[in-house]
Write a structure and sequence with these properties.
- This protein is 81% helix and 0% strand.
- By secondary structure, it is mostly helical.
- It is globular, with a radius of gyration of 19 Å.
C-alpha cells in the first residue's frame, strides 16, 4: 500500500488528467483487474503448495525462497542508495503520465494494470497466502483483501475527488512533491524491513 512507485504513478494519474475522477477510476480498474487476475490464477495453480504439514516450520523450499528474496531485496536497496538521483527520470515519468492521463479509457486501464499493481510484492504475497493452507475459495478471498489494501490510497483519493475536489487536488500536489523528494528513502525503509523479515523467517525455518 505504501509502495512509492505505485503511489507516485497513482498521484500523477490523478493530477495530470483534465478529468481526474475519470482517469482515476479507469486507472484503478486496470490496477485492480490485473492484481485480481494474478491471484485468481494463483489460487488454482499454486493453491496451498507452500503450506507445511508442521505449522511451526515452513517447507524447505519456502525458507530458501525467503532467504533468496530477502537477499535480492537488500542488494536492490544498496544499488538504489548508491545510485545518484536522476532528474530526467522524473521528467520522463511526468511526460509519460501526462500522455496517459489524457488518453482513451482503454489506454488508462492498461497503464493502471502495468504501473499501479503491487509489483515486486506480488510473489511474496502469493507465497504467504499459500502458506496458510487455504482452499481455492479462501485463497481468492485473501487475495481480494490484499488487492484492495494494496490499492487503498488510490481508491481513497478517487472518493475524495468526489467529496472535495479542490482540497484533494491541493493535497495531492503536496503529496507529489513530497514523494519526489523522499521516494527513495521511503522505498529503502520499506524494502529493508521486508527483507529483514524474509531473511529471519527463512533462516529460522531451515
Amino acid at each position: 500500500m505504501l509502495s512509492p512507485t505505485t503511489l507516485s504513478f497513482s498521484v500523477l494519474a490523478l493530477l495530470l488528467g483534465e478529468k481526474p475522477r475519470r482517469t482515476g477510476i479507469y486507472f484503478y480498474l486496470g490496477a485492480m483487474g490485473a492484481t485480481l487476475a494474478v491471484g485468481i490464477v494463483a489460487a488454482f495453480v499454486i493453491g496451498n503448495k507452500a503450506a507445511s504439514h508442521h505449522t511451526s516450520t515452513p517447507k524447505t523450499w519456502v525458507a530458501v525462497f525467503d532467504i533468496v528474496a530477502g537477499t535480492l531485496l537488500l542488494v536492490w536497496v544498496l544499488r538504489l542508495v548508491r545510485r545518484p538521483r536522476d532528474p530526467k527520470r522524473v521528467e520522463t515519468m511526468l511526460a509519460q503520465m501526462g500522455k496517459v492521463a489524457s488518453s482513451p479509457a482503454i489506454v488508462i486501464v492498461g497503464a493502471g494494470a502495468v504501473l499501479a499493481n503491487p509489483g515486486g510484492f506480488i510473489p511474496i504475497a502469493l507465497k504467504d497466502i499459500s502458506q496458510t493452507n487455504p482452499s481455492t475459495g479462501q485463497y481468492i478471498v485473501d487475495w481480494a483483501f490484499f488487492s484492495i489494501l494494496s490499492l487503498l490510497p488510490l481508491l481513497v483519493a478517487i472518493v475524495l475527488f468526489f467529496i472535495a475536489p479542490a482540497r484533494t487536488q491541493r493535497t495531492l500536489q503536496k503529496a507529489r512533491d513530497w514523494l519526489f523528494r523522499n521516494a527513495r528513502t521511503v522505498a529503502a525503509v520499506i524494502v529493508v524491513a521486508l527483507a529483514v523479515t524474509l531473511l529471519y523467517n527463512g533462516i529460522s525455518g531451515l
